User: Which sequence fits this backbone?
């Protein structure tokens, strides 16, 4: 199985959860540094040739990729009138186009196997929107349409495609917020706290388990109730 962006934060927790189950896990990131026990590869998901090369190494080492968790993502936050072309394209290229490269390459092997699990990591922001994150929200909303289209295309071959939409999770990305910002966010979350990366990982491992064999095209929120109804 493959987890992209698996060197830190949510991606690392997902990779570690699969490793704890005894699975053969590969992780990719731009800088490397995946968890111990994983096949650690450097890969820029915006480069289709690099994605293909990474899959080739994984297939030669672990065999076909039966589970893909597309987690790699970046932000470049600013208000829309200040957002540069580079701010827009870098986020869309990584979060949306990069996921297209991954799912296209993964589907090739899964169709031959006649089974597979694809899990795309979106965000509550993709469903609710967020001021200063037009690019990020658009990229994460796009993953929902991508997943549901893939679910329809690939379902007849026992390949499921689902989305996990985390809310505010305690990671390096949220650590930069001020205490005041964190307190304000918590007032908006019905459970009154940030989530833990392991709680996102639990949802992903369930979607990859036999117990979720009849779940496809779903968006699973792990957001403390922040995005309910969306």
Assistant:
């Amino acid at each position: 199985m493959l987890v992209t962006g698996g060197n830190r934060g949510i991606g690392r927790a997902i990779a570690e959860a699969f490793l704890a189950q005894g699975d053969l896990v590969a992780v990719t990131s731009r800088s490397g540094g995946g968890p111990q026990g994983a096949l650690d590869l450097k890969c820029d998901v915006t480069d289709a040739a690099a994605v293909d090369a990474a899959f080739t190494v994984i297939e030669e080492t672990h065999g076909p990729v039966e589970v893909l968790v597309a987690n790699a993502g970046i932000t470049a936050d600013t208000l829309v009138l200040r957002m540069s072309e580079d701010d827009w394209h870098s986020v869309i290229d990584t979060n949306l186009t990069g996921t297209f490269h991954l799912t296209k390459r993964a589907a090739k092997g899964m169709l031959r196997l006649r089974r597979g699990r694809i899990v795309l990591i979106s965000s509550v922001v993709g469903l609710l929107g967020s001021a200063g994150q037009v690019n990020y929200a658009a990229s994460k909303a796009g993953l929902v349409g991508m997943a549901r289209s893939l679910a329809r295309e690939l379902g007849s071959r026992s390949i499921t495609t689902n989305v996990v939409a985390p809310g505010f999770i305690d990671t390096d990305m949220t650590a930069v917020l001020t205490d005041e910002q964190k307190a304000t966010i918590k007032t908006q979350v019905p459970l009154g706290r940030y989530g833990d990366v392991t709680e996102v990982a639990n949802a992903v491992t369930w979607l990859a388990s036999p117990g979720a064999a009849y779940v496809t095209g779903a968006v699973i929120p792990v957001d403390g109730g922040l995005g309910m109804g969306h």
In short: The first strand starts at residue 2 and ends at 4.
